[in-house]
Amino acid sequence: MSFLDHIARCNAHDLKKFVLLIVDGEAAGHIRKEHLIHLERFPDVFNLSGDAVRLADGLDAYEDRTASVDMVVRALFEDGVLAGWRGEPYPVGGNWGGPHAFEIERAAAPFFGVRAYGVHVNGFVRDGDDLKMWIAVRADDRPVCPGKLDNMIAGGQPVKLGLKENVIKEAAEEAGVPRHFAEKAMPVGAITYTMENETGLKPDMMFCWDLALPAGFQPSCEDGEVAEFRLLPVEEVMEIVETTDDFKFNCNLVIIDFCIRHGVLPPEHSDYETILKGLRC
Question: Residue 229: what are its φ and ψ, rounded to 5°?
Fold first, then answer.
């Protein structure tokens, strides 16, 4: 296992298996060819051709597109094609910040291969010259990566909620962080990757935040998604990432980025330049 192994895993995909989802003349996603059969019965919503899927003629308004695609998505859930309804709408089309073409249920985003957004927060404590990170252990009943290590705080980024407000909300729900602490979280950039999974394609963007916490603060899980929190020296965290598969797949990238920015992973590392490029594929 190595830093580059984690980056490669998060970017493993074969676009030859997919066709483009085109909205307003632009590529908005990728749909696996073998999944097109599930869309053939919705000609009022999608036009299918050999190399692309497009919205049906007449679906021009944001609200109409959202309602029509939502009808299809709900049918796919009812048929068992999709699972794990989250009840969180994600934007589709355009760049971050919009304008966007329509909204889609979070759990359906990989099926259509549309970009999903999330926030990941590095909670850390400075103890003299030492730097420590709060690491979450995912609950055993989590549908994705149960029992794996995780960033202190992380969550999807739904439509109509600002990034900072989402950080504050997730901080309270996942780690019991009071608002006056969470408001001090600093945005430090974003990581992108494109990963193929059993549902489809995940061309994800994770907005990264650093949150300095006082030495006496103890996080507590409020929503049951975390089994426990561990405060570990950053060098130990980096070693876990570099030598094991103990962290949830994409959290490795967030920690690698943190270690680079805080000088724990130095430019002298033999893979430094390749790692930098791999965090924003």
Answer: -120, 140
Q: What is the pTM of this model?
A: 0.95
Structure token pair of residue 263: 């000088």
- pLDDT (tens digit, 9 = 90+) per residue, 21-33? 999 999 999 999 9
Those residues with Cβ within 8 angstroms of residue 275's Cβ, 6 or more apart along the chain or in another chain = 3, 4, 7, 256, 260, 265, 269
For residue 237, give the H/E element and its range.
helix 234-243
- Measured distance CA(272)–CA(275) in Å, rounded: 5
Integer CA distances (angstroms), 142 to 107, 115, 117, 137, 264, in order: 14, 22, 19, 11, 31
Cβ partners under 8 Å of residue 268, min gap 6? none
Domains observed in the chain:
3-9+116-278 (3.90.79.10), 15-112 (3.30.750.160)
